[in-house]
Design goal:
Elements (H helix, E strand, L loop, with lengths): L1 E11 L6 E11 L3 E5 L6 H9 L6 E6 L11 E4 L11 H11 L4 H14 L15 H12 L6 E5 L7 H14 L5 E5 L3 H7 L2 E6 L2 E6 L7 E7 L5 H8 L4 E4 L2 E5 L4 H11 L4 E8 L2 H9 L3
Parallel strand pairs: 3-7, 3-8, 5-6, 6-7
Antiparallel strand pairs: 1-2, 1-4, 8-9, 10-12, 10-13, 11-12
Length: about 300
């Protein structure tokens, strides 16, 4: 079942003439973690706002749980980038108020609030006011409130922003613990290193256009770097060029792992009695893929 479906969606703002999304099409299946990435102004927040039913699309069709946006929000846990919660209220009392607003069954509200407090390790902070919490604890609360209804779709807008590396790692661990069969997550972030570790697919937006929507691993180049004991001759360098080798310096080369080139290269080295000092394999990153997709033409 498709949890989210965008079909030829365009969004333009009449007040300033900006076209934030242009003919965007994608479908998100159940139980997937999707990374939403793009430069500032790429259209990520607009896409999330349309999905949540906060703003309408200009043209195109959007379905969430096979309903129009905004009609299935009780099945969605929303974790905003800039939450506007009452800072003078305590964690527990605010969660109770939110549980009531979201129409969680009355007799289950208290128990559900205690469950998310336990899950996100907020026990020691349950009776503190939000204004007394650190950024890391505030973000834990932000995710906890999004999980009150035990949603099947979780939408997170920059959940790692403003956190130090330790805080980022903590939030990633919590996100991974949220994964279960039937739960889908859409996570917008600029921190591609973390998304690479947790996402099944990534959706890349650039200037309102879908540049990529797929599993990133199959598009990340694997390369081998070979360092020789002695500098290469001009003849060797010329021969290597025919094998698709990238010359790093007089003693180091790099070659793509795909295809048979690496096999032919090693045969050539053996025939020429070239002594290899070291050989190292590496794989491209999500950041490499992203930069290759959005580089200015």
């Amino acid at each position: 079942m498709d949890i989210v479906s965008f079909e030829k969606v365009t969004k333009s703002y009449k007040n300033n003439g900006v076209v934030a999304l242009k003919n965007v099409t994608f479908k998100i299946e159940s139980s997937q973690i999707i990374g939403l990435i793009g430069r500032n102004g790429a259209g990520k927040t607009t896409l999330i706002n349309i999905l949540m039913g906060f703003i309408p699309q200009t043209t195109g069709n959007v379905l969430v749980f096979n309903k129009k946006p905004g009609k299935a929000n009780r099945q969605i846990g929303y974790v905003p980038d800039f939450p506007h919660f009452h800072q003078k209220e305590t964690v527990f009392l605010l969660l109770m108020a939110l549980a009531k607003m979201r129409k969680i069954e009355h007799k289950k509200q208290r128990q559900r609030c205690l469950e998310v407090i336990e899950k996100f390790e907020l026990n020691s902070f349950a009776h503190r006011k939000l204004c007394q919490l650190s950024k890391g604890m505030l973000q834990r609360f932000n995710i906890a409130q999004g999980m009150l209804s035990d949603p099947d779709l979780v939408v997170m807008d920059e959940p790692l922003s403003s956190l130090d590396p330790f805080g980022q790692s903590e939030i990633i661990d919590f996100i991974l613990k949220l994964r279960r069969p039937g739960r889908t997550m859409l996570i917008s972030s600029h921190l591609l290193f973390h998304l690479e570790k947790i996402c099944d697919q990534v959706l890349v937006l650039d200037k309102g256009i879908t540049k990529f929507f797929d599993k990133p691993n199959s598009y990340l180049n694997e390369t081998t770097t070979i360092k020789f004991s002695k500098p290469l001759t001009d003849l060797h360098i010329q021969d290597f060029a025919s094998l698709g080798v990238k010359l790093l310096n007089k003693k180091e080369i790099e070659i793509d792992q795909r295809g048979d080139n690496i096999y032919h290269l090693l045969r050539y080295c053996a025939d020429q009695k070239l002594e290899i000092e070291s050989l190292a394999r590496s794989k491209g990153s999500l950041e490499d893929l992203f930069l290759s997709l959005v580089k200015d033409e």
